[in-house]
Automatic annotation (TrEMBL):
Membrane-spanning segments: 113-134
Record organism: Planococcus chinensis
Biased composition (Polar residues): 94-106
Protein name: Helix-turn-helix domain-containing protein
Entry coiled-coil feature ranges: none
Swiss-Prot/TrEMBL keywords: Membrane, Transmembrane, Transmembrane helix
C-alpha cells in the first residue's frame, strides 16, 4: 500500500505553521505521540487498525485547522479503508421428519374431536343440574306435610323470650393521622438539543445525583471532560471489549464525550441510555444537565 508521505507532509507543515509540537498536539487531541509521528511519517501499520488510522488523521487535521473531509477525499487512495464483514446467509429451513408430520396430523384430529366432546359434557352437566333441582323441590314438598303423630296435640304458645339489655355504646375512635407523603424522586428525561458537524448536544433533566456509564462492546478510543475541560476518564484511552467505566457527574453542569468508534460504545446516565441521533463513526456527545421541574 502507498505510504502516507504526502498526506503526512501536509499535516506536519500545518502543525508547524500553528506552532505546535508533537507534545502539544498530543495534549490537544488525546492521541499518543507515537501515533501522531506515525501519521506524519506515513507509517499507518503501527495503528490499532485502518479505522483508527482514519479517525486519528481526521482529528489531527481538525486540530491544525485543515478541512478533514476534504483532505481525506483528496488522499483517499492513501488512506486505509476499514473492511466490513459480510453478513452470514441464513440457513435453509429443515424438512420436517415423518414423526413431526404424524404428530401434526394427530394433533389436528384431536382438535377436530375436542369441540364435540365439550358439547356432550355440557349437555350432561345441564341434565345433572336439572335433576338435582327436581329432587330438591320434591324433598321440600314432603317436609311441609304434617305428620299423623301430631294430630290432636293441643297447641302451646311459645314462651316469650327475654329481651337482652341494650349493649353499651363504645366511644368512637379518633381517626388515625395520615402521614405526609414523601417527595418522589424526579423522573429522568433526555432529548436532543441540536447537532453541529460531528457534535450532538443533549439536554438531560432528572435527579441531582447523576452517574455516567461508559460500556464498550468493541475497541474504541474514548475521552470524557466536564465544562472546565477537566478529564473525567483518567486516562483517555482505547477501551477494550466488555470494559466499562462509571463516573459520578453530580457536580458537573456539562459532559463532553469524544468517541473514536461510536457503534462500539454505549452511554447511559442513571441507567437511561443515550441514543445516538447521528450515524457517525467518530463523533462528540455533549450532555447538558438541568434540574427537573
Amino acid at each position: 500500500m502507498i505510504g502516507l508521505s504526502e498526506l503526512g507532509t501536509r499535516l506536519k507543515e500545518a502543525r508547524i505553521a500553528k506552532g505546535y509540537s508533537l507534545e502539544d498536539l498530543q495534549d490537544l487531541t488525546k492521541i499518543q505521540k507515537r501515533y501522531l509521528a506515525g501519521i506524519e511519517e506515513g507509517n499507518h501499520s503501527m495503528m490499532p487498525g485502518p479505522f483508527y488510522a482514519r479517525a486519528f488523521i481526521k482529528q489531527y487535521a481538525e486540530s491544525v485547522g485543515l478541512n478533514a473531509d476534504e483532505l481525506l477525499e483528496q488522499h483517499k487512495s492513501e488512506v486505509p479503508v476499514p473492511v466490513k464483514e459480510e453478513l452470514k446467509k441464513p440457513l435453509a429451513p429443515s424438512t420436517p421428519s415423518r414423526r413431526q408430520t404424524f404428530a401434526k396430523s394427530s394433533s389436528r384430529g384431536v382438535g377436530e374431536v375436542m369441540p364435540k366432546v365439550i358439547v356432550a359434557l355440557f349437555i350432561v352437566l345441564i341434565l345433572g343440574v336439572s335433576w338435582y333441582f327436581y329432587k330438591s323441590l320434591d324433598t321440600n314438598d314432603t317436609a311441609e306435610e304434617v305428620p299423623e303423630e301430631t294430630a290432636g296435640v293441643p297447641y302451646e304458645e311459645p314462651a316469650e323470650e327475654e329481651t337482652p339489655p341494650p349493649a353499651e355504646e363504645k366511644p368512637a375512635e379518633a381517626p388515625a393521622e395520615e402521614k405526609p407523603e414523601e417527595p418522589k424522586e424526579p423522573e429522568a428525561a433526555i432529548k436532543v438539543k441540536g447537532t453541529q458537524g460531528e457534535t450532538t448536544t443533549y439536554e438531560w433533566s432528572g435527579p441531582a445525583k447523576r452517574e455516567l456509564t461508559i460500556k464498550a462492546s468493541g475497541a474504541s478510543w474514548v475521552s470524557a471532560t466536564d465544562q472546565a475541560q477537566k478529564e473525567l476518564l483518567a486516562p483517555a484511552r482505547t477501551m477494550q471489549p466488555n470494559e466499562s467505566e462509571k463516573i459520578d457527574v453530580s457536580s458537573a453542569s456539562q459532559v463532553r464525550i469524544r468517541l473514536g468508534a461510536s457503534p462500539n460504545v454505549q452511554l447511559a446516565v442513571n441507567g437511561k441510555p443515550i441514543e445516538y441521533s447521528q450515524d457517525l463513526i467518530t463523533q462528540n456527545i455533549v450532555i447538558q444537565f438541568t434540574a427537573a421541574e
